Structures are given as structure tokens and as C-alpha cells.
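sorry for the late reply, my laptop died twice this morning and i had to redo everyting from scratch. anyway the thing you sent over, i finally got around to it. pasting the sequence first so we're on the same page, its 439 residues, then the predicted structure underneath. double check i copied it right bc i was rushing
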Amino acid sequence: MEGSPDHRPVHRETRFDADFTRYAARAKGMVASEIRALFSVANRPEVVSLAGGSPNISGLPLDVVGSLLNELVVDHGATAMQYSPAQGDPRLREQITEVMAEVGIDANPDDVVVTVGSQQALDLVTRIFCDPGDTVVCEAPSYVGALGVFAAYQCDVVHVAMDDQGLVPEHLDNALTSLAAQGRRVKLLYTIPSYHNPMGVSLSLDRRQRVLEICHRHDVLVVEDDPYGLLGFEGEPYRALRADDPARVVYLGSFSKTFAPGFRVGWALAPHAIRDKLVLAQESATLCPPTFSQYAVATYLANHDWKGQIKSFREMYRERRDAMLESLADLMPATTTWTTPRGGFFVWVTLPEGIDAKAMSPRAVTSRVAYVPGTAFYADGFGSQNMRLSYCLPPPDRIREGVRRLAAVVERELELRETFGPVRGGRDRGIESPGPEVR
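ok and here's the structure:
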């Protein structure tokens, strides 16, 4: 009968994701980052992208690489396309120790674990050390991919201030003392001491020793991420933290910046007990790192002048760095400031007071230039007055045009500020999943 209880309409809650209630707690906060959305437009040819951290592999002798890969398949294909040990190919691990010797590290190949890029190495380190609610200390700002890993494992991130000489030891000591007084045990200090992403600065030599001493006194393990360490523009590479404290530093390295990111080969150098845990974690994650990629990198290192190639990369990136710094000095408003990197890929810009880089970003894209807003590099939503500019991929003339467009956008923002007052963006953040170009 119409209107009886059996015929009453059933009202159900509408969900876009039918599995919403099944997700683990760590998955429910995952959101697409502002950076991932940015790259959908930043890669258009009419847009000058000063946003991504993609290395310029056009500087590689691709004909030589192609020939080496062809020989690899013909001569060793049956092995190169099989499974490999979870710790990584022994020959490659031996070669990795030779690469690390360039930053002062004397390592045994048995302590190297090959990973799917240094991003996986960081993921594995965090997995074996951090429970939900554990505290990780990071520089302020810090690499967005690391923040994503720590958030995915439900860590509490505490930022420590930097300046033009890198992490400030006094602030680190004060932060660790305060956290201990609160009963919060810090599991890791995550740091990029050489040619920092996103700031571009490097930890000075005297501060490196002080940071190690502070972490030793507070019983904190150091995770040293060093993807840019061989890409300095002046003198010899910085001596790695790991070189002076093998027992308390886990060193992460990568071939993405010094060879090619598409092979996805990185590594972790760790004390013996930590190495064993990393191998077990690697087995559960991937069984083994990709064998063909390892053989490809090992073949490249054995048959090509990789040191000379890195020198060529340094010269190319230095030319691009110079083009960016000169353009910023010539074109940006007087109250804008920026860092002066001596290596790596990035410049960290501080905008005039009252200008919000995140709020300005869509208007910059409309003007056909893209950058990464500073808020992406903080776990707490700070950085609204900052932006990261990358000079690694565009040629110098394209960099100059990008800075010209960006300067015009900033000038218009200053005019709007004078008329309407400053605009502030929000701090609504989840667990961001950055695109690969951000590295």
C-alpha cells in the first residue's frame, strides 16, 4: 500500500568513495597537493616553469648511453632482466662507495642498500624507526617529499630554523631540549646539508660538527639526504656528515641528479644493524630493487667518464644559476630577497611584506610563469611569503623571460596590496603527495 512503511523511500548517505570507511587512519589525510595540480599547467609549452626540480638530462651523451644499454641487453640481458638480491647488485654497491668517496665517506659496500631512488630509502628508514606520533625534526623549510613520507607514517614534524649558513645549531639544541622536557622522544633529524632543497643554502663546515655533537648529546639519529652534493659550483664538494660520524648518520644518495632520474636508483648507507632492517623492509616493499636499472647505472659508471660528466653538469647548472640571480637582481622589486646557492637546483625567494605566494600562484600561471609556493615546504602551513624557483631545466634565455614575467606579477600584487591591503592564504593541509618533478 502506498505510504506504508514498506514503501517509504530509503535515504542513504552519498559518498564519492565507497571504500572511505575501510581506509587506514594514515590514508584518510592524503590529499593531492597544490604542487601536483600546478604541474598540470606548468608543463604547457607557453608557460615558463621555474617550479620543477627535473635535472637537465639533455646534457648527457644519449648516443653513448644508448650504445651502453644495447650492449647490456645483448651481453647480459638474461641476468639484467632477472631478480636481484634485496640489498642490491654487489658491483653497483662497490661503485657507490667510490661515488661517496667524493664527499669524504669511507664506506664498505656491505653497508650499502640499493633502493628505488633516495625517496624509497627515506621511506624505508622512516618505516623501521617511526611509530604514529613519533617526532621527526626537519629544517624549516624542508623537502616536500620528505614531509609527505613523515605524514604518511603519522609522525609529528617539528621545524628548526635555517639561515644562509644552513640549519642553526642553537635553534636545534633548543628544540631538542624543549621536546625532551615535554617527554617527546625525537627519532630522527632529517637534513639536506648540501645545496638544500628548497633553500639552496649549505650547512657551513663548522656547523656540521656542532650539529653532529648536538644530535649525539640528545641521542638523535641523523638522516642525511644528499642528492645534490656533487653539484657544487665552487671548489671541492662539502664533506658529508656521514664522513665524520658513521655510527649515527644514515646517508641517502641518488643517481637521479648526476645521471638520470628515470632509472630510479638510489641508496642508503647505514650502520650494520640498521642495514639489516633496511634489507628486510626492502624485501617486503619490492622484493628487490629493479635489476635492469642497477645494471644500467653500473655499466654507465664502469664505461663512461662519470666524473667528467658531473663536471659538465656543474658548468651547465652554474650558467643557469647565474642567469637567474642576475635576472632577479635586475627585475624584481627592491624589497624582494633571495638566497645565493653555490650548487644544486634552487633559489629561495622571500616576497615583499603582505604578498602571499600561494594566493599569487594562479595569477602567475595566467601570466605564463610557474613556481612552487613556500607553504609546500612546511608541515605547519608557514612559508606563505616565500617561493622556490628552479633553474635546472630551462635554458638561460628562458629563465630570464620567466623572471621578467614573474617580476611583473609581483609588481601587480604590490599595487593590489596598496589598494586593498595584504592577502593571506590559509593553512589547510593534509598529507601531500607531490609530483616527481618537485624533487
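The chain has two domains: 25-59+309-420, 88-303.
thats about all i looked at so far, will dig more tmrw
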